[in-house]
C-alpha cells in the first residue's frame, strides 16, 4: 500500500485510495474524514467541513461551552478506541496538552503512523503526560523543537508564580493572568487553588471553558467576574483575575499583569509586569525523548522550529526527517 504524508490544507495522510485529514487549516469540501487534535483555534480551521469531524469528548465539551456554531456534525472518539476506515484503523490517545487533546495512531495493513498534535510529555496539574506511541512514521510537533527551549521544573515555575501573586496582593494590586482561555487558564487556576487560598475571578470566556473541565472531573474553584460575588471580589482587590490574553485591561494602577507561556523562557514579553515559562507543550528534550521511545523509521516535523528540529533528528538521531510544508 502506497503511503504519502503531505501538507495540503493541514496534515494529509494517503494510504492507498483512502485520504484522512488531521487538523485542517480551513474547511474541506471533500467527504474525506477529518480528525481534530484539540480545541485551540489554530487547530480548528476544518470545523464545518463537508467530511465528518472526529473529536474527543473533552474537545467537544469545550467547543459546546464556547457555543461554537460549527459543531453540528461531529463524531466522538474515545481514547484507546479504534475507528475503522476501510482497511485503516485510527485510534485516539491522550496528548497531555489540554482537556481532550489527542494524538492519533493510524494503523494500515503495512504501516503504522502517529500524529502527535500538540503534546506535553510531563504531568501538569490538569493533564497527564502523553505516552509515546511506537510508529514507523512519526509526525511530531516542533513548537519548541530548539535546544534553547528546555523548561524549568514545573514546581519551580509554580512557586515563582505564587510568590509573585502574593507579593502583588501585598502591594494592593490585583494580579491578572492574561492567558489562553482554554487550557492555560485552567492550569493557572489549578496552581492558585492548590497552593493558595486566594479567590480566583474569571472572565466569562474562561468561565465557560472551566465548566467543561469540571464536567470532566477536574475540580476548579473560581468565581465569574460578571456575577455579584465576582464584582465584589474585584472591588476588594484581594483576588486573582484570569482573562483571555487578548483582553484589554484599562486600569493599570489597579492591576498587575502577568503572562504564562513557554516563550517567556527566551523572550521579554511586552505589556506585562511578569512572565512565567509555563507551557502545555513538550520542550526540546521531551520531544527528543518521545522520538527515541517511538523508534520511527521516518519523522515529519510540523509547527514552530520544524526545520531546525528535522535537521537535528537527521544529524543527531540518525533518523530520516524533514519539515512538513506545503511544498513537500
What's the helix and strand layout?
Layout: E1 3-7, E2 11-15, E3 18-22, E4 34-35, E5 53-55, H1 57-65, E6 74-76, E7 82-85, E8 88-94, E9 102-107, E10 112-115, E11 137-141, H2 154-170, E12 174-179, H3 184-195, E13 200-202, H4 204-215, E14 223-224, H5 228-236, E15 240-244, E16 255-260, E17 274-276, H6 284-294, E18 298-302, H7 306-317, E19 320-323
Parallel strand pairs: 3-4, 4-5, 5-6, 10-11, 11-18, 12-15, 12-16, 13-14, 13-15, 16-17, 18-19
Antiparallel strand pairs: 1-2, 2-3, 7-8, 8-9, 9-10
Describe the 3D structure.
- This protein is α/β, with parallel strands linked by helices.
- The chain has 2 domains: about 5-150 and about 280-325, Metallo-beta-lactamase, Chain A (4-Layer Sandwich), CATH 3.60.15.10; about 155-275, Rossmann fold, CATH 3.40.50.10890.
- The chain is about 25% helix and about 25% strand.
- It is built from 7 helices and 19 strands.
- It has helices at about 55-65, 155-170, 185-195, 205-215, 230-235, 285-295, 305-315; strands at about 5, 10-15, 20, 35, 55, 75, 80-85, 90-95, 100-105, 110-115, 135-140, 175-180, 200, 225, 240-245, 255-260, 275, 300, 320-325.
- The strands form 3 sheets. The protein has a 7-stranded mixed beta sheet, with helices on one face. A 6-stranded mixed beta sheet has the order 1-2-3-4-5-6.
- Strand 5 (about 55), helix 1 and strand 6 (about 75) form a beta-alpha-beta unit.
- Helix 1 (about 55-65) packs antiparallel against helix 4 (about 205-215).
- The longest helix has 17 residues, at about 155-170.
- The radius of gyration is 21 Å and the shape is globular.
- About 50% of the residues are buried.
- The mean pLDDT is about 95.
